[in-house]
Amino acid sequence: MSVRTPDPNPGWLTDVELAETRRRLPLLYVEAVPVRVDGMGQVTEVGALLRANSVGEITRTLVTGRVMYGETLRDALFRHLEKDLGPMAFPQLPLSPVPFAVAEYFPLPGISAFTDERQHAVSLAYVVPVTGTCDPRQDALEITWMTPVEAASDAIVSEMEGGRGVLLRQALASVGALR
Amino acid sequence: MSVRTPDPNPGWLTDVELAETRRRLPLLYVEAVPVRVDGMGQVTEVGALLRANSVGEITRTLVTGRVMYGETLRDALFRHLEKDLGPMAFPQLPLSPVPFAVAEYFPLPGISAFTDERQHAVSLAYVVPVTGTCDPRQDALEITWMTPVEAASDAIVSEMEGGRGVLLRQALASVGALR
Amino acid sequence: MSVRTPDPNPGWLTDVELAETRRRLPLLYVEAVPVRVDGMGQVTEVGALLRANSVGEITRTLVTGRVMYGETLRDALFRHLEKDLGPMAFPQLPLSPVPFAVAEYFPLPGISAFTDERQHAVSLAYVVPVTGTCDPRQDALEITWMTPVEAASDAIVSEMEGGRGVLLRQALASVGALR
Amino acid sequence: MSVRTPDPNPGWLTDVELAETRRRLPLLYVEAVPVRVDGMGQVTEVGALLRANSVGEITRTLVTGRVMYGETLRDALFRHLEKDLGPMAFPQLPLSPVPFAVAEYFPLPGISAFTDERQHAVSLAYVVPVTGTCDPRQDALEITWMTPVEAASDAIVSEMEGGRGVLLRQALASVGALR
């Protein structure tokens, strides 16, 4: 690691460095379940992203990404919402940095409900209302909106990457929308 | 109590009936701490109502009121926000009915941090961002906006009715804005 | 209502008075999901009560009961835990009076996930570890202990009175034990 | 970094590696506020550790430490409680991995209420009742028990390292013990 070379952004790891770090430390993530709410604050729809994973399969996922060095949780959450939902989604960030759930992802299954074969990641998860238009960018193909009942169904839950179906159910429970 | 007289709205107690009930049962209340937030969801200002109490003293209070028979918590919260802040406040109701605090008001001091000489009341308290213009109605004289630091100060806390200064501090703590 | 008769315990309503009140006001309840935890605080088992309801059917329910005039939420929770689980259950009461869920019970279905044909009740629900021996008293026949997966199953959820299966799932979600 | 040398425990960084990582990534911490509770679950005392910091000053702190690669949050919390309070403290770990607060520590002041000159750390904080005898080990000199009112006082809050006095107040607020 050329750590002595001046680096304009020390939080930006090279791919090799990131690969090494992933075998050494738990990485901190933020995760968001995008929702639409009615005028009374009640969740009416839940969004999931369709994405082609590394082996070309289509899976469902949530808004998710790493927290960078020097970045606040709010800034990280906002950055990943914009990256995954586009600049016109107008997310309403949570008042509190306390998440509705903390998801612990391990490379091997069985330790928790969540797996990530690349790394040990700990993710702080939030329910985030969006009031604008979502236009997925990067590797996400599209966003699908579902009712809370559909979102909590076994069919949807089993399609979600890394156990995130469980996180979706926890999200719904946290807003009183799990039946 | 003329309970046998047909009543178009059974949740509407007469003053005599309400007075009796207050000596018999804990009454259910909802309470809101109005806040203003910036684009990142961070609380920048906290609102408190100035009100003349029954003996003519000016005190500070929060948005507060009873839940009626047949009314949901959301409906009660919305009704009292509109009553106390006017129809143009545009409150963003919480996603979850779980309050940041449950305040227990007793007629006698010492049982909890909260007192209400009229009754035993249990109040579910929420932090509610408002995005419009507040125009207090009814018996509230005006709404004062303060920074989180001012709102948590001993001076303000001691001016609040029934121990609600403690509730204000709990509200600030729940959104990570208590210093 | 003989409200003018001196009453040594004003929080104690006669049956007639309670019946009247139930048509006039939302009643405040506390509710507990008894659990067993391992040495690391993880929920291993969840308890549900078997009870014969008013028409003789066997249903499942949770620890539940009314908050009396002058009683704190903690005292009410402790009283109902002792009433339903016996004096040797040794419950660990929650540190915080903030519930994991607020269940709104209405006489008519469709307003919320919860129904109670007798009344409008608002219930603050807590997960409570018990460390001793449970010996149901009063009208409860027995307590059944289940794994979190069993407790969240459609079969168990559908057997629970008044929609409390949903509350059970919310309880499991709140402790990270819903799959 | 000698990352190519086989390492029996890849989560164990050398001092040099840890120093490098601290300039590149936010590190994940867990933090505990030890408390004593009465039979009704109410917090009666709060513990703070006295510690000599790197320049020999005596400061107050909480139970705190890093989450290692492959370690669950519960395991990390238990390990640091044992390290700081000794093996006979008998802590009751929280039912839920959701913290009462997320403290963001930055090397420079002003970004949040918390600073850590060594690193950017994100800490999940929990209130943990202890039922046994605390016997601080390692670099902690002793544990001081205080009432909630003392613990929240300006004097104590200002003595706490890295802004943890704010975290202490948030802890008290989360259990309804902040006045």
Question: Would you write up a description of this structure?
Answer:
The structure is a homotetramer of 179-residue chains. Chain A has helices at 15-22, 73-85, 148-151, 154-159, 164-174, and strands at residues 27-37, 43-52, 58-61, 63-66, 101-106, 114-115, 121-129, 140-146. The longest helix of chain A is centred in the middle third of the chain and has 13 residues, at 73-85. Chain A starts with 14 loop residues before the first helix and ends in a 5-residue tail after the last helix. Chain A is globular. With 179 residues, chain A is an alpha+beta fold. Chain A has one domain (24-174): Nucleoside Triphosphate Pyrophosphohydrolase (Alpha-Beta Complex). In chain A, strands 1, 2, 3, 4, 5, 6, 7 and 8 form an eight-stranded mixed beta sheet that branches. The A-D interface holds A 1, 3, 10-11, 13, 17, 20-21, 23-28, 67-73, 97-102, 104, 106, 111-112, 120, 122, 124 and D 1, 3, 10-11, 13, 17, 20-21, 23-28, 67-73, 97-102, 104, 106, 111-112, 120, 122, 124.
Mean pLDDT of chain A: 90
Task: Please tell me what the overall shape of chain A is.
Answer: globular
Oligomer: homotetramer
Low-confidence stretches of chain A: 1-8
Query: What integer value in Å does the Rg of chain A equal?
Result: 17 Å
The CATH architecture term of chain A is Alpha-Beta Complex
Instruction: Look at the structure and name the CATH superfamily of chain A.
Output: Nucleoside Triphosphate Pyrophosphohydrolase
How would you characterize the largest beta sheet of chain A? Answer: 8 strands, mixed
Number of helices of chain A: 5
Structural class of chain A: alpha+beta
InterPro entries (chains A, B, C, D): DUF4916, NUDIX_hydrolase-like_dom_sf
Pfam families (chains A, B, C, D): DUF4916 (PF16262)
Organism (chains A, B, C, D): Leifsonia stereocauli
Protein name (chains A, B, C, D): NUDIX hydrolase family protein
